[in-house]
Design goal:
This protein has one domain (2-194): Glycerol-3-phosphate (1)-acyltransferase. It is of the alpha/beta class. It has helices at residues 2-16, 45-52, 69-77, 90-101, 126-134, 146-149, 180-194; strands spanning 21-23, 34-38, 57-62, 81-83, 105-108, 138-144, 163-166. α3 (69-77) links the parallel β3 (57-62) and β4. The chain contains seven helices and seven strands; from the N terminus they run αββαβαβαβαβαβα.
Length: 195
């Protein structure tokens, strides 16, 4: 219920105030599980993604956010999965796999933190690993303008048009042997699409 309220409110705000433009909607699968990967330049990004696609997105979010009074309540209310950010978290992988096995959609920001487009911070391979392990596609989404609308450190948003470009599906086929080279190639494929 909370997700539907947030989605409805976000859609109105982003369409009216930020003139949200979505390109490539035809690249979103009509059914089945998939993983969405997107660049992360603003606190608005999760709301932008929710406004951009029809299916419910289960986000993987930094664990420290769950400790914040208001933010933590929202994340728990929409079913987000906490990410510790260090080592292999078996519980995290199991929770993410449950979402995908149930036909759900995972939302992942591969950098693992908010960065600007010029940042050379390397992406993590979690999205590629989960997609290959679950045999589901990856949908890359490039968010443009959110970092200007609400830059890191800003207290109030600025009026700035936000665009989302939904890229073509990237296969996460289980038929290929899961190894470091394949994960790197998959990560490089979606990072090219979202930047």
């Amino acid at each position: 219920m909370l997700y539907i309220i947030i989605k409805s409110f976000s859609l109105i705000i982003f369409k009216l105030i930020f003139r949200l433009k979505i390109i490539g909607r035809e690249n979103i699968p009509k059914t089945g599980p998939f993983v969405i990967v997107a660049n992360h330049s603003s606190l608005l990004d999760g709301f932008v993604l929710v406004s951009s696609v029809k299916p419910k997105i289960t986000f993987m979010s930094a664990a420290y956010l769950f400790k914040m009074p208001f933010v933590g309540n929202i994340l728990r209310g929409v079913g987000a999965i906490p990410v510790q950010g260090k080592g292999n978290d078996i519980k995290l992988i199991k929770n993410a796999m449950k979402v995908l096995q149930a036909g759900g959609v995972l939302g992942i920001f591969p950098e693992g933190r908010i960065t600007n487009e010029k940042d050379d911070f390397s992406a993590k391979a979690g999205a590629a690993y989960l997609a290959v392990k679950a045999d589901v596609p990856i949908i890359p989404m490039a968010i443009k303008g959110a970092g200007k609308a609400l830059p890191v450190g800003a207290k109030f948003p600025k009026l700035n048009r936000i665009k989302v470009k939904i890229g073509k599906l990237i296969s996460g086929s289980k038929k290929i042997k899961l190894n470091k080279k394949i994960l790197e190639d998959t990560v490089n494929s979606y990072m090219k699409e979202i930047y």
